[in-house]
């Protein structure tokens, strides 16, 4: 059993076809088939069930996958310790786009000598990729806690708050002592899906206390860059992350009868077997 065979096994397990795995690894399906047969022969068991053109992990393969991921993590750790000092490491991070907006730059500023490869996924999918060895770190909210396993460790990163915002030219931009009656006079732009998990929750999922107050909804869209542009040009009111309000130079609204702000706790999640340099990066970011 060799490292290259385990690496190819993980790729096949995730891709589920030799063709897709071969594209990912820049090799041929034939080469992967030989590696898989060699690995299965050395272990004395089959690792996949052949269902049509797909290769689906059987019980043996499902048991091997997390152990193979640990071995590859250990291999990367040894390479970082014994390899050339000027080696550039690659850290793969999966996160929802709305979280990448702020943290790509902040993480990059602490990642000296590390190439950061980002993949855009909603948080449950990001966590699944982490479990399957496709990424090294998942950036999510605390809402993924029900999906955590013992093989993962969680580090608190801070929080974000969704707040009401308008552009500088909006009639409410410089008004004080706002009430919900003031807000009801102007159109809102709202999402209908959570920007974190992607679940469609309806047009009240942005934080508006819909049971208490009415509002005029003119735009329904899930792209937060588009939401920010509608707000920036003075066309709409919207709930936006505090860091996007600052980045787009928008104006926060303070409403006297607004009962709450939506605050989400953020975290970085990694495998316990992750290479030391990844753990050190996460520790630097989270304190």
TrEMBL record:
<keyword id="KW-0238">DNA-binding</keyword>
<dbReference type="GO" id="GO:0000976">
    <property type="term" value="F:transcription cis-regulatory region binding"/>
</dbReference>
<protein>
    <recommendedName>
        <fullName>HTH lysR-type domain-containing protein</fullName>
    </recommendedName>
</protein>
<dbReference type="InterPro" id="IPR000847">
    <property type="entry name" value="LysR_HTH_N"/>
</dbReference>
<keyword id="KW-0804">Transcription</keyword>
<comment type="similarity">
    <text>Belongs to the LysR transcriptional regulatory family.</text>
</comment>
<keyword id="KW-0805">Transcription regulation</keyword>
<dbReference type="Pfam" id="PF00126">
    <property type="entry name" value="HTH_1"/>
</dbReference>
<dbReference type="InterPro" id="IPR036388">
    <property type="entry name" value="WH-like_DNA-bd_sf"/>
</dbReference>
<dbReference type="InterPro" id="IPR036390">
    <property type="entry name" value="WH_DNA-bd_sf"/>
</dbReference>
<feature type="domain" description="HTH lysR-type">
    <location>
        <begin position="1"/>
        <end position="58"/>
    </location>
</feature>
<dbReference type="Pfam" id="PF03466">
    <property type="entry name" value="LysR_substrate"/>
</dbReference>
<dbReference type="GO" id="GO:0003700">
    <property type="term" value="F:DNA-binding transcription factor activity"/>
</dbReference>
<dbReference type="InterPro" id="IPR005119">
    <property type="entry name" value="LysR_subst-bd"/>
</dbReference>
